[in-house]
Structure formats: structure tokens, C-alpha cells
Amino acid sequence: MQSVQKLLPIVVNLPRRLVGSFPLFVSHARNVNRSKLWSNRTLLYSTLHHGVDGVISELDTDYIVPYQKQDESFISVNNMKKLLKDSLDLSYGEIEQIVNNAGVQNIKDGTLISTVEMLIKAGIRKECFIDFPWIITLQRPQLKDKLVLLCTLNGLKDVNDFISYLRLPFLRLRKIIRNLNNEKKYASYGNRAYYFSEKLALHPYIVNKHLAKRLFVLEMPCDMFEKNLELMLKYKIDSMSILKDLWVFLYAPSIVETRLKRAKLGKKDKIKPWMIKCREPTLKRCLQLTQEKLEVLGDKQTAEEYIAERLQITVEEARAVMKRYGQVRSVRVTKIKEVFDYLLDEAGFSTLEIAQVPRILCSSLKTTKKRLEEIKKLGCHSHSLMVVCRSKLQYQAWIERWKKMNQIKETQK
Length: 413
Hints:
By secondary structure, this protein is an all-alpha fold. It has 25 helices and two strands. The chain has a two-stranded antiparallel sheet with strand order 1-2.
């Protein structure tokens, strides 16, 4: 049996009429020669009935076939899907999303199910599997050590709140947790992460999802961190805006305060974190546009009120007009004013014609002027605003059709 033990097991199915469905185990081979396999049927049959040792040395190595593990991997993934479905009540779409995003094709067989079982046993919710599908690809020994380490965090309320940190190397995670545990200043909140969450009035799960990508917020000096956070909340910056632009915490509090004061003096209605770290010309341009907007609006508060006044309709009717083409809401009031001034005062269009084609308010004024002058030269006046709003190709096609129609009319005369 020594010769057999040296070979890796592989199944070669013999013809049913020869030996039924009984498989012969041979090993370590490539490029099976089917003709030789059929020509040695008697030898293979003898092997089954008289033992392998007596004839294995006579077998040609051409019969040795490599063993494929694809089927086992497929079974492992399917079992993992079933486990997720039964344990977490995930939909089939959510399960497929997790598997596709996690890249389980590169995971060794047998590790998927054990990893998922450990996560479920640790109380990881289904939202974590959806938001962080890579957790199912973590190796079991490392995952166990990281989960144990997370449980040592001071003030831990729910391990799901810090699930995003599992992707960190073990030593990096240990350093972060050690720093958080050493900060006695935030003991009443639990730790700095929970303090940050409470100040922003956001769930810790959401906050840590962003902090895990910007770990410097958890390691920077407490005074600098608290001062910058206090300033941004004082100037009523939206919590999610702060969370999505955590780089502003790296700026000195004096710079942060100066920029926020300038934005407030410029009567900026919504102050954003990017105003703290943008270049000086960018901030000046932003504040200049704000002043121009306020001058156009006058005593009015919104763009809807301004459009209603120019079109001589009610505010509700103006909202209905803008709803027909939603991009109008993103156009600056100063540009809308320029378009109104040209169409009503110079081009001679009525308020009704403009209200019927609100898309004209989004078009470039330069392009609008150029096209209206061209259309005027062609002698066309009906539906001209609809034509002006078309794409470049559509507009050129319409011009060509109009010219051909005029040529036909001239030839008929």
C-alpha cells in the first residue's frame, strides 16, 4: 500500500457497463488519455477485484488526473448563504450583494462558515454584514482576537458600534483602544467616540463608520479636537457635513474661527466645512456670489418668490413651474435674473412663453442669445424657446430641416 499512499486521491469513473458506478482512486496527474484508459479496461477491472497493490505499478501515469476543489468552494459559499439567510433573515438580493462585494472567491474552503458563525455568535447585526461585507473574509484567529480586544473598550455599549474597526491590523487596533481607554476625560461618555457621537447627535454606528477611515480624530490632542468641534457646532454646521469632512479638525482653532466668522459676516446661509480649508480666492468668490444673490432677492427669501414676481404669478404656481424642470432649483438667482432681463426686455418674450419652457432658465445666456439671433434671421418665431433649449445635435438638425423646408417653399413659388 506504500505506492498508493504516495499518490494524492482522485476519482476516475469507469464505464458503467464494465464496473457499474464504482470509482477507481488514482492520483497526481494531468492530460488524461482516454484511448489508453479504454484499452486498459481489463487491467482496471482486475484492480478492483484483486487489489490495488498488485497492479498499481503497472498503471501508466497518464491516467493520473488532478483533483479539482471548485465544487467544494461552491458548496462552502452556498452553505454560507444559507447560514446568513436562516440566522439574519437577509433577502436573497442582500446576500448576493454581500458575497459579491466581499470577494469570497479568493477565500480558502472551510473558513467562510466558521467566520460567519463566529460573527453571528458575537451578536453582529445584519446591517453590519451589508455595510461591511469584508467582515466575512476575516481569518478566524485574527477575528477572534479583534473581537476580544473590542470588548475591552471602556464604555462599550454595543460591539456593532465599532464593527468598522475590525479591518484595522491587530496592532493598530490595539493602539487605538489603548489610547481611548487612557482618556479619562471622556469617561462619563464612555470614550471619545461616544463623546463625538453625542455632540453630533448621531448614532455611534454612523460616527464610527467615518472615524474608522480618519483615525487621526481619535489620536489628536483633546483640546484641539474639542475646540474645533465646539466652533463648528456654534456656527451651526450640519453634523453630517462635519462627519464627511473630518480633515478640518487638523486646522488650528484660530484659523477655523477666522474662516467661520468671515462666512457668517458674508451672510452665508449654510456654512460648510470646506469653507474652512479652501483657498482664499475660492472663499472670496463664494462670499461674493452670496452678496450678489442677496442683492437680487432684496426683501424676498427664496428663488421661488423671485421667479413668481418676474413671471407675475403666485409662489405656488412658481413652484409648479420649477417642478416641471427640477434643475432650475440649482441655478443661481443671479443667472436667472440675467435670463429674465434678456428674454423679457430685449428678446420680447412674454411671461407665459417663459413659464411654458422653464428649462430656458438653465441654458447658457450666451448660447441662448446666439441661437435666438440665428432663428430670427431664418424668419422663425413660433416655439423658438423650445428649440433654443435642445441639445447641440438636435438644434442643428432642426436648423437643417427648417432650411430645407424654406428651399422647398421657394422652389414651389
